[in-house]
Amino acid sequence: MMMTNAGKREALKRVKIMIDFLENLFYEENVPEWSEYLTNYIKQMELLSPIRK
Q1: 41 in a domain, yes or no?
Q2: Coil, strand, or helix at residue 19?
Q3: What is the pLDDT of residues 4-53, one digit of tens each?
Q4: What is the Cα gyration radius of the chain?
Q5: CB count in 10 Å sphere of residue 32
Q6: Of 24, 50, 53, which Cα lies nearest the Cα of 38?
Q7: What ranges in 1-53 are assigned the alpha helix state H?
């Protein structure tokens, strides 16, 4: 599924949904160390391929 253009678009949507969920969860739970970890992970992944465009 992820090999087709439609599958790739769907995968990117799912990644964005999960990142948005985690950002909000970490904010609500007041765990800045996890927010920082997620931010660093996102930056690292954007070097490999843009996720959140």
Answers
A1: yes
A2: helix
A3: 889 888 988 999 999 999 999 999 999 999 999 999 999 988 877 655 54
A4: 13
A5: 10
A6: 24
A7: 5-28, 32-48
